[in-house]
Amino acid sequence: MSDSETIATAGDPLDLTLSDAEVEQRRTHLVEFIQTQTAAAGVDQTVLGISGGVDSGLVTGLAAEALGPENVHGLIMPSTMNDEKTMSDAERVAQRFEVPYDVIEIEPIVEAFLDAYPEAQDNRMAAGNLRVRTRAVLNYLVANTEDALVLGTGNRTEALIGYFTKYGDGAVDCHPIANLYKQQVRQLARAVGVPESVASRTPTAGMWVGQTDEEELGIEYDTLDSILALHVEGGVPASATAREIGVEANVVERVRALYEGSTHKRRVPPGPEEPY
Ligand SMILES: Nc1ncnc2c1ncn2[C@@H]1O[C@H](COP(=O)(O)OP(=O)(O)OC[C@H]2O[C@@H]([n+]3cccc(C(=O)O)c3)[C@H](O)[C@@H]2O)[C@@H](O)[C@H]1O
Ligand SMILES: Nc1ncnc2c1ncn2[C@@H]1O[C@H](COP(=O)(O)OP(=O)(O)OP(=O)(O)O)[C@@H](O)[C@H]1O
Ligand SMILES: [Mg+2]
What we know:
Blueprint: H1 20-41, E1 45-49, H2 54-67, E2 72-76, H3 84-96, E3 101-103, H4 107-116, H5 124-146, E4 148-150, H6 156-161, H7 182-192, H8 196-199, H9 213-217, H10 221-232, H11 238-245, H12 249-261
Parallel strand pairs: 1-2, 1-4, 2-3
The structure holds nicotinic acid adenine dinucleotide, adenosine-5'-triphosphate and magnesium ion.
The site of nicotinic acid adenine dinucleotide has 15 residues, from helix 5 and helix 9.
């Protein structure tokens, strides 16, 4: 959407916040999930990108709790699209959870790709996805070298609408927070002790300067979560969903279209049917 368009906002969004007891249950469950995944793979070590955003803040805290901070390798990977405050907050996350980390500037790597294929230079989506995929390559470089699993930071909201880069931030070994809607991610992040400046940061994919998720999508997260929970996952008809939360019917239809259009991102790439 263009910046002049409004961001769809429900008059009466669904309250998906968890009770304090549910937050603690989830926290325990997700910590155990990380322990189970690493044990099943026969490794102790994990690696993840830390961006200064709430999703990676939460996964960093959960992983440190699950495995001990010495078994979590943080990668802070600034590009020219990231602001300094966000990157120093990424360092604060690592420091808060006592996770060892490296800072790797990705722009020289990105530039090498764009020099090799200059046609993508002025395509902000292609170049943005390149930055995201460059971080994935670095995650796996560490994973291969240190016998580590790559921890994903994708949440339920992003997965359902395909709001991630295929084989970029989607290229991971497990998804610890895949069952949490965005508003629940914030709740858990506060519970595990993610710094408040990170827990309350406006979500951004950092693919271009000034990008915010809600502006790009043209919808507020609480509204998006409500439509996903009621209509896409809950099976409530579109018109009833629109009435219940107080949005135009076309907003619900738009979310449904995002869900349907991103099916390919949630599947293993298909091959032809046997036996031919
Ligand atoms: N029907 C289909 N069946 C199989 N494959 C299909 C396909 N349609 C496209 N494709 C393939 O998928 C590609 C497009 O997918 P992709 O490369 O992911 O690119 P695309 O979905 O166009 O862009 C990624 C989106 O995710 C957002 N994002 C990215 C990274 C992080 C975050 C964040 O929240 O932090 C958000 C980003 O802002 C952007 O809106 C096509 O070039 C094609 O290769
Ligand atoms: N500059 C960066 N350095 C390291 N990792 C990054 C960077 N930018 C993005 N990532 C990785 O890509 C993931 C996906 O980005 P995404 O924006 O969805 O999550 P977030 O930044 O943690 O939270 P938010 O969505 O609220 O901004 C991050 O969680 C992080 O693992
Ligand atoms: Mg982000």
